[in-house]
Every structure is written in structure tokens, then in C-alpha cells.
Design a protein that fits this description.
307 residues, mainly alpha, globular
Length: 307
């Protein structure tokens, strides 16, 4: 694991090599973390899971950062990383953990796939001020149409095995995630590894606070851990967080936004497949059609974005 992180932040490695290594990690690893969170939250409440996951990952990564970068952040850099960590992990990441606890993991990944909608809207309103192109607008409408097909709120509730309210939670999380991602280039941030570690630790503290407020008895669930849930937790820490999140963090600084957002095409496909193969989640023809429509909309959104 340490050698993997060393490679990702090795200055000798070419940016092109790093770019594709990071993209592959975000494509595949993040697609698999939906199922990992689904399994882990069978025992551990979502906010406590997120808190423990990023506490361990952030501590490990901070020690690696201090060994390699040998510099502590300034006050402004520290608070910038804390803010981004709360937006990305404290709100964005934990909202996904809440949603997969109540809904099939593949379907949650499909909702998150529409995250370019939030990127486009927030970028237009607060950052670049560029109006979306007609192709982007068409992609947004197509993507939302696919989600409506999948989660038709006018359909009888008895025909679904899960509630719809987590969709609102994911929407809040996606908004926070997009805002945090877009803010990175505008804020004074610490060195790369240290910055990512601080973001994880800040998100962890935020989740501990929320867990204490709304998850009574959460700590008692740790006495009921199974090999299945522990394995999922270890995977989320070592692979999902240390490799997956550090990959995304690097991409926010170094990859073109259009290329970075392509992970939204792949993640739901990976999540849907793993949910069906390992998680015994139903993969209906309607879900497959909706997945195709949503991803098609995301492709249009990405292609239509002005450079």
C-alpha cells in the first residue's frame, strides 16, 4: 500500500502515467466502494462508518505526507483543507453511505452519476460564470429523464423494496461534493498528500459529531462486527480511501475537468454489476435502460462543456 501511494506521488513518474493510473483507480475502485459501504453499514451506522474509515485512512496518509513532503500547512492552507474535507467527505461521502444503507448500492451509484449536473450549475453560478451549452442542457434533461424512469415517484410504493427519501440525501451530498471539488483550485491548499490527509481527518471529525447527534448507540454496534463487515471496512480504508480518494484529490488539481468527470460514466456500471454479482441486488431491464439513458446524458453534459 505504501508503495502504491509512493508511485502516485512520485515526481519522477510522468504526469501522463499518473493521470491514467489515477483515472483507472477512480473508475474501478470508486465503483466498488458502493457495495463496500452497503456491506459495512449492515452493522455499523453510516456516519460512524465514515468517521472511522477516514480517521484511519487520514492518519496513515498524514504520516506518509510528513515523511515525503516534510512541511506543515500554514493557517490559511489548513482551514482551506478542512473546509474542502467537510464538503467532500463530511457531507458528500457520508450522504452516499446513508443512501446505500437504505437503497441498492448500484442504484445509488446511478444517482451519483448525474453529479455533472451539480458541477455545471455551481460552476455557472459561482465560479466560471459560463452558461451551459445546448448540448449540456440536453444531457442534463436526458440524465434526469433516466433517473425519473428509474425512480418514478408516482409509481405505487408497494412496487419498490426501498424508500425514495435517500435520493434527497444524495442530492445534498452531490451538491456539497461538487462545491468542494470546484473550490480546490480557488483556495490556498497544503502540499498534495498532506492536504488529502487533512481533508480526510476533517471529514472524519465532522462525521463523528453528526453520529453522536443522530446515531444513538452507534458505538455498541462494533460488538456485532462480522468477518464480512470487517473485510468491507478494511477494503474501504486501504483501497477506497487511501487509493481511491487520493487519486481523486490529485485529479482535481491536475486533470482537465472534462476528463476528470468521466468517472461518472464508469462508476455506476461497476457498481451495478458488483451489486448484482456479489450483493444479490436485482438488476432489472428497467435499471439497465435507465443506466444507459443516464450515462448517455452524462456523456452529453461532458462533451458539451466549454473548455
Amino acid at each position: 500500500m505504501y508503495r502504491t501511494i509512493e508511485f502516485y506521488f512520485n515526481p519522477v513518474a510522468t504526469n501522463k502515467t499518473k493521470l491514467w493510473a489515477y483515472l483507472f483507480a477512480v473508475y474501478i475502485i470508486w465503483g466498488s466502494t458502493y457495495l463496500g459501504m452497503k456491506i459495512a453499514t449492515e452493522v455499523i451506522p453510516p456516519f460512524l462508518l465514515s468517521a472511522l474509515r477516514f480517521l484511519v485512512a487520514g492518519t496513515l496518509l498524514f504520516s506518509i505526507g510528513q515523511k515525503r513532503e516534510k512541511q506543515l500547512p500554514g493557517k490559511k492552507q489548513l482551514w482551506s483543507a478542512v473546509l474542502v474535507g467537510i464538503l467532500l467527505i463530511g457531507i458528500g461521502g457520508s450522504s452516499t453511505a446513508v443512501a446505500v444503507h437504505y437503497m441498492p448500492s448500484g442504484l445509488v451509484a446511478l444517482i451519483v452519476a448525474a453529479i455533472p449536473v451539480w458541477f455545471v450549475g455551481l460552476d455557472w453560478a459561482f465560479f466560471s460564470r459560463q452558461k451551459p451549452t445546448w448540448m449540456t442542457v440536453a444531457g442534463i434533461l436526458i440524465g434526469l429523464g433516466g433517473l425519473f424512469l428509474l425512480f418514478n415517484p408516482f409509481e405505487a410504493a408497494q412496487s419498490r423494496s426501498f424508500p425514495l427519501w435517500p435520493i434527497a440525501v444524495v442530492a445534498v451530498g452531490c451538491t456539497s461534493w461538487a462545491l468542494g471539488s470546484l473550490s480546490v483550485s480557488k483556495l490556498p491548499m497544503p502540499a498534495q498528500i498532506t492536504s488529502t490527509a487533512i481533508q480526510m481527518l476533517a471529514g472524519s471529525v465532522f462525521c463523528f459529531i453528526i453520529s453522536a447527534a443522530i446515531e444513538p448507540g452507534a458505538w455498541s454496534t462494533l460488538g456485532h462486527l462480522t468477518l464480512r463487515s470487517v473485510s468491507a471496512y478494511v477494503y474501504l480504508v486501504l483501497i477506497g480511501s487511501l487509493v481511491g480518494f487520493t487519486s481523486y484529490s490529485w485529479l482535481t488539481r491536475n486533470a482537465p475537468p472534462r476528463l476528470m468527470s468521466t468517472y461518472a460514466y464508469v462508476n455506476p456500471v461497476v457498481a451495478l454489476f458488483l451489486g448484482w454479482l456479489i450483493g444479490n441486488e436485482n438488476l432489472s431491464s428497467r435499471a439497465l435502460i435507465a443506466c444507459t439513458i443516464v450515462i448517455g446524458g452524462v456523456v452529453l453534459m461532458t462533451l458539451g462543456k466549454r473548455k
